[in-house]
From TrEMBL:
UniProt superkingdom: Eukaryota
Record domain RRM: where: 28-106
Protein location: Nucleus
Alphabetical keyword list: Nucleus, RNA-binding
Any one GO molecular function term: mRNA binding
Gene Ontology terms: cellular component: precatalytic spliceosome; U1 snRNP; U2-type prespliceosome
Pfam families referenced in this protein's UniProt entry, alphabetically: RRM_1
An example Gene Ontology biological process: mRNA splicing, via spliceosome
Protein name as annotated: RRM domain-containing protein
InterPro entries: Nucleotide-bd_a/b_plait_sf (IPR012677), RBD_domain_sf (IPR035979), RRM_dom (IPR000504), U1_U11-U12_snRNP_70-35kDa (IPR051183)
Length: 110
């Protein structure tokens, strides 16, 4: 009985502090990979808009041909919206391709 009580307290602590811990690790910018090479910036933005306000959606392009490389970044107004999009879109099939969504790694200026 005592172990169950301790377990419940741990679960309650996790539920209480989870949003705060999550915001520290999570970014409002997502990295989207394995996109179709025919995807446009506008289509990328429209794909993620149902989950919140998209402030920026951009595909990475080859500098010489200017064709999309098949991956890009989507930035949301809030971390919560980004998390919803991450959970809903990671591993989905879009345009006949299985896409992956990850939290974008941010680099700190030196």
């Amino acid at each position: 009985m005592a172990a169950a009580l301790v377990g419940n307290r741990c679960l309650e602590f996790f539920r209480t502090w989870r949003p705060m811990l999550f915001e520290r690790r999570f970014s409002s910018e997502l990295f989207v990979s394995r996109l179709s090479f025919y995807t446009t910036d506008k289509e990328l933005k429209e794909l993620f808009e149902p989950f919140g306000t998209v402030t920026d959606a951009r595909l990475v392009r080859d500098p010489t041909t200017l064709k999309p490389k098949g991956f890009g970044f989507v930035t949301f107004e809030s971390v919560t919206e980004a998390h919803k999009a991450f959970q809903a879109m990671n591993g989905r099939i879009v345009g006949g391709r299985l896409i992956f969504v990850e939290v974008a790694k941010t680099t700190r200026p030196e």
